[in-house]
Amino acid sequence: MKKPISRPIVLCLSGHDPSGGAGLQADIEALIAQGCHAAPAVTALTVQDTVNVSDFRVLDREWVLAQAHAVIADLPVSAVKLGMLGSVEMVETVLEIMQALPGVPLVCDPVLRAGGGGALGKDEVGFAMRERLLPVATLATPNLPEARILAELPEGSADQCAEKLLPFVQHLLITGGHGDETEVHNRLYSRDGAHHTFTCQRLPGSYHGSGCTLASTLAGRLALGQDLVSAVETALDYTWRTLRDAEQPGHGQFVPRRLPLDFCS
User: Fold this and answer.
1) What is the pLDDT along the chain (265 residues), one digit of tens a residue?
2) Which residue ranges does the record assign to the Pyridoxamine kinase/Phosphomethylpyrimidine kinase domain (predicted)?
């Protein structure tokens, strides 16, 4: 007799990356590695490879709502992970979806630009995310360039961005690694004044899908019931290992290895 699923369900609202390095495939692989079940709902389609993104199309909100509500009606969602939204309308769509999931932790990866620099949403999307979406999120995970966009501080430090953003979000993880420092500093800020810094060795090269990997891993750890600070530490360690073992399948960035080579053997 088949057993009911015992793995926590994580609803992923993200874009599709045909190269498989980022987006929903990154979410699925990272969540499998945490012992979770990913329920992926597509928010956008992109034209991209491991070098950069050249175009994208946000799906009709009715399609996204239908996907999400089908999952919610059938599966016990334990956490939600947000990736690329691409439009203000999609921000509002997510808010409507979250009304059906009171108390469920929400991890928001504010995907505004691809690793190669290409835009994945207009400037007003960042404003809408800050004003409307961050207040319902448990944790936001911007890298420093994204945090500067959200905080409207083009040259701001992580501390300055956090000061501007914490009135909007309960917890904020600003990841480093975008300068030339030899040690990467990832900083977790909480509205109650708590502050934790996690450091790791800087790895050579650039990576496609590292932010997706981190945010989905965090959603998985929260779905498993891990406390937030411990979940952040676990997710950062896992993500660093996927980058350490990354491959370069194409002509551009490295792709994190989120699953062991013998996973399907």
Assistant:
1) 567 768 999 999 999 999 999 999 999 999 999 999 999 999 999 999 999 889 999 999 999 999 999 999 999 999 999 999 999 999 999 999 999 999 999 999 998 765 544 455 555 888 899 999 999 999 999 999 999 999 999 999 999 999 999 999 999 999 997 766 789 999 999 999 999 999 999 999 899 999 999 999 999 999 999 999 999 999 999 999 999 999 999 999 999 999 988 765 5
2) 17-253
Whole-angstrom Cα Rg for the chain: 17
Q: In what side-by-side order are the strands of the sheet with 183-190?
A: 53-58, 37-48, 9-16, 77-82, 106-108, 139-140, 171-174, 183-190, 195-201
Cβ atoms 223, 8 nearer than 8 A: yes
Q: Quick check: pTM over 0.90?
A: yes
Amino acid at 158: A
Q: Answer whether residue 4 is part of any domain.
A: no
Look up the domain containing 180 and give its range: 9-245
Q: Which residue has the tokens 């921000």?
A: 91
- In this structure, the strands spanning 183-190 and 195-201 are antiparallel
Residue 241 in domain: yes
Domain membership of residue 88 (yes or no) is yes
In a domain, 255, yes or no: no
CATH number at residue 119: 3.40.1190.20
User: Please, what sign has the CA dihedral across residues 165, 15, 206, 216?
Assistant: positive
